[in-house]
UniProtKB/TrEMBL annotation, chain A:
Native source organism of the sequence: Pseudonocardia xinjiangensis
SUPFAM superfamilies named among the record's database cross-references: 2Fe-2S ferredoxin-like, CO dehydrogenase ISP C-domain like
Limits of the 2Fe-2S ferredoxin-type domain: 1-78
Listed PANTHER family: OXIDOREDUCTASE WITH IRON-SULFUR SUBUNIT (PTHR44379), XANTHINE DEHYDROGENASE IRON-SULFUR-BINDING SUBUNIT XDHC-RELATED (PTHR44379:SF8)
Highest classification ranks of the organism: Bacteria, Bacillati, Actinomycetota, Actinomycetes, Pseudonocardiales
UniProt name for this protein: (2Fe-2S)-binding protein
Automatic annotation (TrEMBL), chain B:
Keyword Nucleus assigned: no
Matching Gene3D superfamilies: 3.30.465.10, CO dehydrogenase flavoprotein, C-terminal domain, Uridine Diphospho-n-acetylenolpyruvylglucosamine Reductase, domain 2
Name of the featured protein: Xanthine dehydrogenase family protein subunit M
Residue ranges annotated for the FAD-binding PCMH-type domain, each copy included: 1-170
Family annotation (InterPro entries): CO_DH_flav_C, CO_DH_flav_C_dom_sf, Diverse_Substr_Oxidored, FAD-bd_PCMH, FAD-bd_PCMH-like_sf, FAD-bd_PCMH_sub1, FAD-bd_PCMH_sub2, Mopterin_DH_FAD-bd
Naturally occurring in which organism (per UniProt): Pseudonocardia xinjiangensis
Keywords: FAD, Flavoprotein, Oxidoreductase
Length: 157, 290
């Protein structure tokens, strides 16, 4: 089937979509957007997190057909003209990236957290990132990165 | 596989009647897992996310009518006062990403004994509104909705329209045991409600029987003891040992199995502890509300 949706601000028409296919598969394999990662395919790990109509969701659990006519923002859509956002810079600066597989999902979840709550407490950070698993860092450097991004955004505003 | 995407409730019911094997999907947090892992290949997916009637809640003749496709995030944000037990349960579900998609209607459709919505719906005497194109609307008390492991009372041509819940007349509680605080399928769960207007107690057991179920005898015992001691009126302290005895009787209502998430023995033990705590917390809330 064909689906038409807006991805990172651009209208996309995608043909040949299988009716049982996930939005994640369509993004990676049909639209050339491999930023969202495919790991657990059951909503446990959060590495496929994207915005769907403004809300962070696991794209592996959205049927591609359900995204027809909707607006999707992936991690690729969070940096404008190759310029990294404060959240992305903070992950680099803090060493919150090791193997990097969980990073895109964590970037999207952190971006959403700081949009809703610019100065989160540590328990609020842990709660907001509870659906994103990292098996490398032990989370401490991720916590550092979120705190740094929060401070950087505060200074910039 | 077909992909059916009706935009009205009438079209959704007609689609289900024409293709009874179509699998309804809203948040996809259960359905897409089964598709991704090749466990299920229904003849059609019936996407209900475009049916506006399912996406809202509203007061309706003295009850809250919660559309089947209202997400857990919205239950938490908008219904914490009107549906306190359900909102407490919703906060324990999955992660922010899952709560942004998962729905109470989906939980009922999946009818897993471990679904977190079920204990608070049982404790609050919720009613499930289902509908078909041929026979119209019928209301099923939630305790009769669960018919077996992952099966429910829906006919093949029926869809879940809404859940109807009376506003709380007393405190409600929800407890859940899992191995961590997020992304957990319940090892065991318990929902509790005080109904002082009719001197009754509501209970719901999760993950400790083939279906979600009530602890009827335990609820009648506790309500009767409170009545006999005049405590519904006096709002006095719970007598020594009453909450503990209630916990033992809740445990007696369960029929758990050993599985990968926990042993039957642990489920029984944790249920008696959760029931004791939930009753104590709710009673203390009832006393403070005087």
């Amino acid at each position: 089937m064909r689906i038409t949706l807006t991805v990172n601000g651009t209208r996309r028409e995608v043909d040949g979509v299988w009716e049982g296919e996930s939005l994640l598969y369509a993004l990676r394999e049909r639209m050339g957007l491999p930023g969202s990662k495919n790991a657990c395919e059951q909503g446990e790990c959060g590495s496929c997190t994207v915005y769907l109509d403004g809300l962070p969701v696991c794209s592996c659990l959205v049927a591609a057909g359900q995204a027809d006519g909707r607006e999707v923002t992936t991690v690729e859509g969070l940096s404008a003209d190759g310029e990294l956002r404060p959240v992305q810079q903070a992950f680099l600066a803090c060493g919150a990236v090791q193997c990097g597989f969980c990073t895109p999902g964590l970037i999207v979840s952190t971006h959403d957290l700081l949009e809703r709550n610019p100065q989160p407490s540590d328990p609020e950070i842990r709660e907001a990132l509870a659906g994103n698993l990292c098996r490398c860092t032990g989370y401490e450097k991720i916590m550092d990165a979120v705190r740094l991004a929060s401070r950087a955004q505060e200074r910039a505003s | 596989m077909e992909f059916l995407a009706p935009t009205t409730w009438a079209d959704a019911l007609a689609a289900k009647a024409a293709c009874p094997g179509a699998l309804p999907v809203t948040g996809g947090t259960d359905v897409l897992v089964e598709i991704n892992f090749d466990r299920r290949r229904p003849p059609a997916l019936l996407d209900l996310t475009r049916v506006a009637e399912l996406r809202d809640w509203a007061p309706d003749r003295g009850r809250i009518r919660l559309g089947a496709a209202v997400t857990y995030s919205r239950v938490i944000d908008e219904l914490a006062t009107a549906l306190p037990g359900l909102a407490m349960a919703a906060r324990t579900i999955g992660s922010p990403q899952i709560r942004n998609r998962g729905t109470v209607g989906g939980n009922l459709g999946a009818a897993s004994p471990a679904g977190d919505s079920h204990p608070p719906l049982l404790a609050a005497d919720a009613v499930v509104e289902v509908a078909s194109a041929a026979r119209g609307v019928r209301e099923v008390p939630v305790a009769q909705f669960y018919t077996g492991v992952k099966t429910n009372a829906l006919a093949p041509d029926e869809l879940i329209a809404a859940v109807l819940v009376a506003p709380p007349r007393g405190p409600q509680q929800f407890c859940k045991i899992g191995t961590r605080n997020a992304m957990v399928i319940a090892v065991s769960a318990f929902g509790f409600a005080l109904h002082p207007d009719r001197r009754a107690v509501g209970t719901g057991i999760g993950s400790a029987a083939p279906t979600p179920r009530r602890a009827e005898a335990a609820a009648e015992f506790l309500a009767g003891e409170l009545d006999a001691a005049g405590l519904w009126e006096s709002r006095g302290e719970l007598p020594d040992g009453l909450a503990r005895e209630f916990g033992h009787r809740v445990r007696a209502a369960a029929a758990p199995i050993d599985d990968v998430r926990g042993s039957a023995a642990y489920r029984l033990h944790s249920l008696s502890v959760m029931a004791r705590r939930a009753a104590t917390w709710a009673w203390n809330d009832y006393r403070r509300a005087a």
